[in-house]
Amino acid sequence: MNLPPHSAERDPDFSGAASAALLRELRDILTPESLITDRELLRPYECDGLSAYRRLPFAVALPEDEAQVVAILVACHRAGVPIVPRGAGTGLSAGSMPHPQGVLLSLTKLNRILKLDPVARVAVVQTGARNLAISEAAAPHGLYYAPDPSSQIACTIGGNVAENSGGVHCLKYGLTMQNVLRVRMVTIEGEILELGSHALDAPGYDLLPLVIGSEGLLGIVTEVTVRLTPKPQMAQVIMASFDDVRKAGEAVAAVIAAGIIPAGLEMMDQGAAAAVEPFVKAGYDLEAKAILLCESDGTAEEVAEEVGRMRGVLEHSGATDLRVSRNEAERLRFWAGRKAAFPSAGRISPDYYCMDGTIPKKGLGEMLTAIAAMETKYGLRCINVFHAGDGNLHPLILYDANIPGQLERTEAFGAEILRLSVALGGTITGEHGVGFEKIHSMCEQFSTDELKAFHAVKGAFDPPGLLNPVKAIPSLHRCAEMGRMHVHHGELKFPELERL
Amino acid sequence: MSLAAFRERILARRPLCLRGGGSKDFYGGPLVGERLDVGGYQGIVGYEPSELVMTARAGTPLAELEAALAERGQWMAFEPPAFGGAATLGGAVASGLSGPGRTSCGALRDFVLGAKIMDGEGRELTFGGQVMKNVAGFDVSRLMAGTLGTLGLILEVSFKVLPIPVGQASLRFQLSQDKALDLMNRWAGKPLPVTATSWEEQLLTVRLAGAEAAVQSACGALGGQRLPEAEAAAHWAGLKEQSHAFFAGEAPLWRLSVPSIAGPLPLAGIPLIEWGGAQRWLRGDYAPAQVRAVAQKAGGHATLFRGGDRAAGVFMPLPGPLAAIHQRLKAVFDPHGVFNPGRLLLEL
């Protein structure tokens, strides 16, 4: 069969879209308070959690049910108007940054938990349901939804599906992909697709892995069935200090090599510990060059056995200090600092930029040494928190957007970290997504043929290319331009963008 | 066989029947096209126990991978069936089949981290990677799991491996199907180290694995009769490899994948149940329409897994919009219809 033409060559141009006609249609579909076109009221939607990239959409639509979502998509399809889906707007890669000619589709009104079956251990929820709300609803049954991104108070399950979100416990419990059984979504043509099922598999291609993590490029998710996990009886965390970051990195590898899969295995460098300690008073060892948090969960006997084994490995790896949480309050306090790393960075610096590369764990030491050198090269500080167990790094580059040139230096710093992530055998994004932010770094990780394949996959779901355009997958033209950009480092990227 | 040789065969644009060890020739639609043997494309490309990642060429026998992992105290926790000695990594991924531990550790596709494939234009494409967390680009590597080779020639796969659990025990209970289904679901909702379950001929068998202390305390909590180690190992291997007596003989074998809480299904014949109730096997000459209707009513689907008339399609047909997406994806990766035509769905 012949594919509809779909160009991977250049970014699409939507200047000819029938926007005025679309607006009339949207007024028929939505109640007046669910359609925003007033410039001032559009402001809150101009960016997601990555505020460095802002744009105003043409309109914001807030559908209240799936039928409205279908109607909006059909109308946009007819008018040739792009659509950018948005959940809670907590994303960190400008994945839901609006398109100036497009409709921003806010899905927060579809926030109901439709069904929770404690025997089947599943919850059927609408796309805008909050991650934490699912766990709260499941708690009376001794169950919870395992993926716990640090934004879990606010972030939506639809956003988690879009990004394949993880959290601090995904080494043991998996990412969104491993915890979703079924996704119901609407295509740009207004067709409803059911992917997966309440059984453990479905006939045909397994499209769930393709759609989970697809950043809103393939369809609009309206409903998700998640798997619920029995809550472990208890958990204990070990806090270990190291006088050298490389030793801490080796300790991480040693824990895994000893046959232990911790429930969480996190690392903070001295800068990160110093940044959070004044705010959370977790009792972090500020003399340590690196701190590891290593958690065990399960039955009391299981935890006692595993904590004993973990202690042995960490001591043998040269930990200078070891503390095991004595009760739940202390465990939560040890974690509080790690979970507060991002907001703490925001308190010690006017702005910060969070990176998200993943590397094989053996490259941890090399990466940290390189980041230290980059701090000097770019004249900016960087503090580091890592999901060490799975090699996912979150270097936080501290900068001040009001000082001319700092944002550009920050972006160059970040891009260099990502380049090294790829060179070390890793990836430019472990869990935050490519979005608009890392679209250029995609050119470093994938070949022209691979990028063409991605565009073709998008075309299979979204032939007119209207869903979240100019995100996640760069056009070949963009990658070619980026090659030139390496030469002129000081130049401003994306001059078409409004900078705030 | 070399990549250049694979490319030459693909670019000839004649239908190809991709084959690793041939252990799953029985599975899926009829074999069509000239045989392309991938079994010679072998070797472990990378293995770092502390990274929990192994990378190997598609033709590498599963047995070789398992042996290399066992040396370092690790294993493929998704327990891919070999159905004889010749099964390869590529075949395991293409068939997407997972073993007895499916409900506790996940499916084969959950363990796939990256894949290198050759598409219908002879291009080498790499998706995913060698790290646990990677959301750059669409996850085409996991899409390959269960495609039965219809989207491309799998060349190399990186997958997650896990430490072999320290403690293990299997318990047996004499129970009716109703009662067993109820118990399997109730236990799955508790923080117990249950990693596999099966029920057949009034016998519920439960595998516990994890920290030694957790296994011991669960044994005490659940009761039942503890199986001797060798008997337990033989039981789970018999289910995984379908060497268990239930699978003997020539009668067609149906696999019904249903929500675990579905009650006993209204079909003649006593099933063998796995995956906490989510996978049910039946033997006999059922009318395909009847089995499919029962599975669908229970919220799942049915596959003619082995034997019977394969020409009529062994998997359940797809609804229209989903079928259209399948055809378009097929056109993306295999525009000339070279790879395993009709093996997964008649129209692909």
The average pLDDT score of chain A comes to: 92
Chains forming the largest contact: A-B, 97 and 89 residues
Contiguous runs where pLDDT drops below 50 for at least 5 residues of chain B: none
Count of helix runs of chain A:
18
Q: Alpha-carbon distance between the termini of chain B? A: 27 Å
Mean pLDDT of chain B: 96
Radius of gyration of chain A, taken over Cα atoms and rounded to an integer in Å? 23 Å
Ranges of chain A where pLDDT stays below 50 over 5 or more residues in a row are 1-6, 484-500
How much helicity do the residues of chain A have? 25-40%
Task: Specify the biggest β-sheet of chain B.
Answer: 8 strands, antiparallel
Question: What gyration radius of chain B follows from the Cα positions, in whole Å?
Answer: 20 Å
**In this structure, how is the largest beta sheet of chain A organized?**
7 strands, antiparallel
* N-to-C CA distance of chain A: 47 Å
Number-wise, the strands of chain B total 17
Biggest sheet: strand arrangement of chain A: 15-12-14-13-17-18-16
Quaternary state of the chains: heterodimer
Task: Provide structural commentary.
The complex is a heterodimer of chains A (500) and B (348). In chain A, the strands form four sheets. Chain A has a seven-stranded antiparallel sheet, with helices on both faces. Chain A has a five-stranded antiparallel sheet with strand order 5-6-10-8-9. The model of chain A is unreliable at 1-6 and 484-500 (pLDDT under 50). In chain A, a hairpin with a 5-residue loop joins strand 8 and strand 9 (192-196). Chain A contains 18 helices and 18 strands. Chain A is globular and about 70 Å long. By secondary structure, chain A is of the alpha+beta class. Chain A has helices at 19-29, 39-42, 66-79, 131-138, 157-163, 170-173, 176-179, 208-211, 245-257, 270-280, 300-316, 328-339, 341-348, 364-378, 406-423, 442-445, 448-461, 476-487; strands spanning 35-36, 59-61, 83-86, 103-106, 113-117, 122-126, 143-144, 180-186, 192-196, 220-227, 229-230, 234-242, 264-269, 290-298, 321-324, 351-354, 381-387, 392-399. In chain A, helix 9 packs across helix 11 (300-316), helix 9 (245-257) packs antiparallel against helix 14 and helix 14 (364-378) runs antiparallel to helix 15. Chain B is built from eleven helices and 17 strands. Chain B is an alpha+beta fold. Among the domains of chain B are: 3-163, 2-Layer Sandwich (Uridine Diphospho-n-acetylenolpyruvylglucosamine Reductase, domain 3), CATH 3.30.465.10; 167-245, Alpha-Beta Plaits (2-Layer Sandwich). In chain B, strand 3 (44-48) and strand 4 form a beta hairpin. The model of chain B has no long low-confidence stretch (mean pLDDT 96). In chain B, strands 13-10-12-11-15-16-14-17 form an eight-stranded antiparallel sheet, with helices on both faces. At the A-B interface, strand 9, helix 9, helix 11 and helix 17 of A face strand 7, helix 6, strand 9, helix 7 and helix 8 of B.
